Amino acid sequence: MRVGVVGAGIAGLAAARHLAANGSEVVVFESATHVGGRCATLTLGAYTFDPGATSIVPRGREIERVMLEELDSTDLVKIDTPVYTHDGRRVFHGAGLPPTARYCYKQGMRTLAELLAIGLHVETGKRVETIEAPSDGGFSLLEQTFEALVLTVPMTEAMRLMSQIGDVRRANNTRYRPCLSVLLGLDKDFHTPYHAVVAEESVHPLHWLSIENIKVPGRAPAGHTALVVQLGPKYSKWNFDASDDSIVEDALVDVERVLGPGFDRPVVQHIVRWRESQPDSVSGFESMNPPGSKLVVAGDGLEGGRIEHAYDSGIKAAKLLIGP
Ligand SMILES: Cc1cc2nc3c(=O)[nH]c(=O)nc-3n(C[C@H](O)[C@H](O)[C@H](O)COP(=O)(O)OP(=O)(O)OC[C@H]3O[C@@H](n4cnc5c(N)ncnc54)[C@H](O)[C@@H]3O)c2cc1C
Q: What is the spatial distance between Cα 301 and Cα 308, in angstroms, rounded to a whole number?
């Protein structure tokens, strides 16, 4: 079967990999210039940041076996420092999240997507604007024809594309929250027994703070620090279009309250604006994709906003097309 997959995030790559391994001819279309989607990595000067997913906590789901047994695990890092909590002023040395295996890759989270993409036909820089369903069957997009399609783009985009061919399926339960990720490279040495702190936004707008070079050594030069500051959904919603400088200024005030003084002059600063960062609620893969569908929708918006769920949804999409 010839299958087109739209989106080269973890869901799209999982679907494409499973389909290709079982004899399908697969083409993956990705609008960005690289694979990974929200499993992203950005290098700015001498600092390396993961502005989207910061780590993988598979809790025994399929992606863990794939990472450990199928993919090259040379650069796979098991993070050995915990996550603590904060209340906006102090860090609590109690465990913020239950201890469980937490992974990342040495060069960044995007490595996972790059490893999944090995051997696949991925066309990057190809945004799918329209899809058609010719009367003689199948689908066409970007001047190519396919017997089946897998859409792994965010649900709003999936519904936009499906409506073009009269497909009225709705992922109405999927609601994504926004997130401003502030990336800061600092000329300051900083040592903590934890690699990240987390708080509920009701307590503080600083939701998640990751010290990238403690998470994975080597992410910043010696004597420097690479921070990812994820601001909570309320702050991110109201300040989404604010200037970079004002967001960085707010983030630095929050960081200094939690970590102490000395973070006021970043060497590098950058903001990644995720309008649809992670879903707060999902629509359910099975309710969206009845048996026999030749156009299958997958992605974290159907299974849960985590890498391991995105992966599972891609595999489910492939199995719906070719059987278990
Ligand atoms: C700030 C943040 C923090 C997170 N933290 C974690 C974490 O710590 N751990 C964890 O497990 N998960 C985390 N997540 C969630 C995780 O990143 C996602 O659940 C997962 O990466 C989603 O994968 P996906 O394939 O479903 O979607 P995506 O990664 O969004 O992939 C969809 C792809 O489709 C492409 N695309 C969109 N429209 C088109 C089009 N029209 N044509 C072609 N291509 C298109 C996009 O460019 C993208 O590459 C986080 C996410 C964010 C944003």
A: 12
